[in-house]
Amino acid sequence: MTETKNKQAGWQLTSQLWGRGWGRGPLYLRQALHMMKEEKLFSGIYIAGTALAIAFTMVMAVVYYAKLADIEPEVNRSRTVYVLGMRMTYKDGSSDDWTRDYYNPTKVKEWLYPLKSAEFVSAIIDPGTFVRDKFYVTSDDGRIVSGVLKLVDANFFKVYHYKFVYGRPFTQEEVFCEGGDPDASKAVGIISKDIAEKVFGKGVNPVGKTVNFGYDIRIVGVIEPTSSIMSESFGQLFIPNNEGANKAIVVLKEGCTIDDLRRELNEIAHKCTISNDKWKYDFEGSVQPHAQRMMSEGEELSSWKEILVSLFPQVLVLLLIPALNLSGLVAARMKRRLPEVGVRKAFGAKRRELLHQVISENLVLTLCGGAVGLVITWLLLYVFRSWVFFAIGNNTYTLPEPMVEGEMLFSPLIFLIAFVVCAVVNLMSSLIPAWMSLRNPIVESLNQKR
Amino acid sequence: MALPIMGEMSEGQRGSLIYIMETIIKLTEVNKIYRTEEIETQALENVNIDVQKGEFLSIMGPSGCGKSTLLNIMGLLDEPTSGTVELCGTKIDPTLSDNRLAEFRNKTLGFVFQSFHLISSLNVLDNVQLPLLYRGVGYNERMKRAKEVIERVGLSHRMKHTPVQLSGGQCQRVAIARAIIGNPEIILADEPTGNLDSKMGADILGLLKQLNEEDGRTIVMVTHNEQQAQQTKRIIKFLDGRQIM
Predict the structure, then answer these.
(1) Rounded to an integer, what distance in angstroms lies between the CA atom of residue B43 and that of residue A331?
(2) Which of A17, A347, A444, A449 should be substituted to probe chain B, the one whose Cβ sees the most B Cβ atoms within 10 Å?
(3) Shortest CB distance from B98 goes to which of A34, A351, A443?
(4) Do the Cβ atoms of B139 and A441 come within 8 Å?
(5) Measuring CA to CA, how many Å separate A346 from each of A23, A224, B110?
(6) Which range marks the domain in which residue B180 is found?
(7) pLDDT-based confidence at A302, cuts 50/70/90?
(8) Looking at this predicted complex, what is its ipTM?
């Protein structure tokens, strides 16, 4: 009995809500759909304008998200800091020239690994003029297979969380192998699954097998391929580096700031300067948080959300152009609909209710624009991914075409942000002309020629 | 029949007389002046009209004499420049907010326009239920009442049609259904047969007469048509913004 009563009460409440206001939804929807059919040109332009605005905002957001958010394997981006070599300038000021120091194996062990503000430090050799970033190996069937080479230490696999299909990361012992034989240490390596399949064939577990890289490398692990959008972690063959480093990747301890790290590094630089007659050492320009390195954004640690928020004014200015066009369109449409507004007012519609209706109708169009915008975004991110990430994301054409998939391609949060931003801009663009036309006297509205 | 003198009436008689003579629309010294930068046009000049409850009144006059302006003022769609308007015993305060006016119109008035003013993107059912929508009536109740009034105007077979699929006469029937769905005391019809041929015009007038006689609704109709005006209970003639009889 109680259950039946509750059900009845529920139905009554639903019916009341449906009747008062909520019930207008289906009516507004029907009218909006009818208008879409009747006013194809207006609807088409409105949807296209909204779709492009959403696509533009989403592509921007996705690029920033893909480059800055904590995404596997770069799950520590929000507390990752890159430390390049120390800057060296002449103590006597005889020249403005400067250079960056190189961390030899001793400096790596004595300065970088013991940093107190760091949870992990990975010392690597970044490819440059003198270090090759490509490898060539011969496959089992005699083909030459090439890919991107990374010279890393064991901590690299703590900083970046790769998914291992087979095997394991190499250990620090394998990097600095016992007996101090550097050549022996190079004998292990990790490859990506796509390269493993090219070299050894599909479905083969290559752990324990060797590839010839001028010398034999024993495979100890195979990782899932990653996207080249994540340029810091992207690699297809990882071999141990025990010859010093030109870059350290530091994951800050929870609770430590970039300033704590800078203080430690400055102490090191100060000691070096004191002990050297010719050179003055500092870390000017050497300490780069992830966002600064990826997108030239900010000198402090900041999350992708903070960066997106900081970009908001620029995005808003760019969205203002389609918004003004939409505003003009809505104004013209509202002028055509003045007699309808007059009739509704005559029969008791309040301005607020009419505004609600106009907003609801525009929301339907905005939703359609959102769906089309999503498709355009996917097309841009999928078909033109190299260009998009090159144009916005500082990606380099030397890397393979980026893989764009999973949460990079569709993050509900990103879509929601882009949609809300565009919906608000659309709303504002329709709100002003709608409000203006609703202020028209009823008689004038009724007498308006259709 | 001679009416008894007030002092000689019983309590019951007084009550019924008061009912019979209840003034539902009262315009006092109403003036309407349209001003532009160059010209000032007096659309209405010292108009005094009392409309009794249950009357079917027609307002006649040539084009531009102020008939529609008068109707708009009666319907609270326009404001007089000076003078007072009373509807259903309520003096309309010129400072009343738009929202209050909208509520008042919604509950008290129904409009029938010459050019129907149906919303082309809505079907008959949706057009008719409009006044109830703004009164906050629930969906089921709205539907029920809309179907009833549509049936009453003889269009139950056209409920899902849109206005473009209807003839002029049918559109005006829908407009009448929309005007009466909220059960308003007063129906204001601005040349309701103006866009119709004579047969359809006669049909619509018949429908309005039926609403007046059967439901006792007060109807004020603006018309050019002398023959149609003759079928109403009282005629007021206008010329150049002035009431001439």
Answers:
(1) 31
(2) A347
(3) A351
(4) no
(5) 21, 67, 9
(6) 23-243
(7) low
(8) 0.89
Contacts of B178 in chain A (CB under 8 A): 347
The answer as to whether B9 is a domain residue is no
Query: A167 in helix, strand or coil?
Result: strand
Specify whether the CB–CB gap between A85 and A103 falls below 8 A: yes
Overall pTM > 0.90: no
Q: Is residue B10 in a domain?
A: no
Total domains in chain B come to 1
Q: What's the mean pLDDT when you consider all of chain A?
A: 81
Nearest C-alpha neighbor of A341 from the set B187, B98, B195: B98
pLDDT in tens, A234-291: 899 998 887 888 899 999 999 999 999 999 999 999 998 998 888 888 888 889 888 8
Residue of A nearest to B141 (CA): A19
Cis peptide before A433 (omega within 30 of 0): no
Q: How far is CA A426 from each of CA A360, A374, A429, B46, rounded to the nearest angstrom?
A: 12, 16, 5, 49
Helix (H) or strand (E) holding A223: strand A216-223
CATH code where residue B50 lies: 3.40.50.300
Q: Which segments within chain B are labelled E, that is strand?
A: 23-35, 40-52, 56-60, 82-87, 90-91, 109-112, 186-190, 218-223, 234-239, 242-243
Helices vs strands, H then E, count in chain A = 16, 14
CB A338 within 8 A of CB A438: no
> What is the DSSP secondary structure assignment for residue A111, as one 8-state letter?
I
Domain limits, chain A: 25-69+303-447, 76-124+250-301, 126-243
Residue A190: the pLDDT is 93
Q: Any alpha helices (H) in B75-161, and if so which ranges?
A: 98-108, 124-128, 130-133, 139-152
pLDDT band of A427, cuts 50, 70, 90: confident
pLDDT tens per residue across span A159-172: 999 999 999 998 87
pLDDT of residue A66: 79
The token duo for B148 is 């009833």
Place of tokens 């259950």: A3
Strand, helix or coil for residue B137: coil
- Say if the Cβ atoms of A347 and B106 lie within 8 Å: yes
B199 class by beta-carbon count within 10 Å (0-12 exposed, 13-18 middle, 19+ buried): exposed
How close are the terminal C-alpha atoms of chain A, in Å?
57
